[in-house]
Amino acid sequence: MIDFYNVYKNYPNGVSALIDTSFHIKKGEFVFLVGSSGAGKTTIIKLISRELLPTKGRVVVLGRNVARLKRRDVPLYRRNIGLVFQDYRLLNDRSVYENIAFALRVIETPGKEIKKKALESLELVGLRNKAKVKPLELSGGEQQRVSLARAIVNKPALIIADEPTGNLDPETSIDIVNLLRVINLRGTTVVMATHDKDVVDRLRKRVIELEGGKVVRDELKGVYRPS
C-alpha cells in the first residue's frame, strides 16, 4: 500500500526533513505517525499525496512510484486518497451538502450519483440532518465530521489525516478517531499524524515515531511514547 525506501527530503532552505527513512504500510492498516513538531510527519503526508517529491529514495503508494507520475496523472492518483486536515478546509459559503457534492463534481461523478453518495457519506458521520447548514453554523467537531465525509465520499483506498483532532476537545477527538476506526474496519487504510497522546494510547494501533527526520520506533499496538 505505502512503501518508503531510504527516502531523503531536503528543502531549499537547507532543512533536511527526512533522512534515510524507510517503512512499509500494508493495505487495511491503521497507523499513527507521532513525533515532535518538525520531526517529519507532515513531510511524509505530503510525499504520499504527491504534494512533494523525494530528494532521494523511492515513495511507492498504491503500486505507483510517486516521482514517476506524470502531472496529468496526479489528479487520478489522488482520487484514491482522502485527505483530512486540522483546519477542516471547508467552503464556508456553501452548505454542508454542497461541500461534499463539490468534491464529487471535481472528479466528474455522474450527476445522478452525486446526491446518493453525498448523503450516504453524511449519514456515516452522523450529519445527514445538517446537510443544508453552512459550515460556520457547526461546532468544530461537526466541521471535522464534514471534512471526513468529504474525504470518504469517493470510497478511497487510503485516508491521510494530518492532526485531525488538533483543534478539538478530548471527547470530540475520540469521536472523530472512532469514525476513522469504523472506516478502517471497512477496509480503508488510515494514516494519521498526531500529537494527541490520549487518542494514540487509547487505540493502541501501530505507531511510527519520527525524530529529526528519522524513524526511531515502529511498534505494533504502540503508545504515544515508550514507557
Query: CATH homologous superfamily of the largest domain?
Result: P-loop containing nucleotide triphosphate hydrolases
The helicity comes to 25-40%
Number of helices: 7
- The 3D shape can be described as globular
The end-to-end distance, rounded to whole angstroms, is 30 Å
Which regions have little confidence, pLDDT < 50, spanning 5+ residues?
none
- CATH architecture annotation of the largest domain: 3-Layer(aba) Sandwich
Overall pLDDT confidence: 94
Overall tally of domains: 2
Number of distinct beta strands? 10
Tell me the structural class: alpha/beta
What tags apply to this protein structure?
single chain; 227 residues; alpha/beta; Rossmann fold; 2 domains; six-stranded mixed beta sheet; four-stranded antiparallel beta sheet; 10 strands
List the helices and strands and how they pair.
Layout: E1 2-10, E2 16-25, E3 30-34, H1 41-48, E4 56-61, E5 64-65, H2 74-78, E6 81-85, H3 96-106, H4 111-124, H5 140-152, E7 158-162, H6 170-185, E8 189-193, H7 197-203, E9 206-211, E10 214-219
Parallel strand pairs: 3-8, 3-9, 6-7, 7-8
Antiparallel strand pairs: 1-2, 1-4, 4-5, 9-10
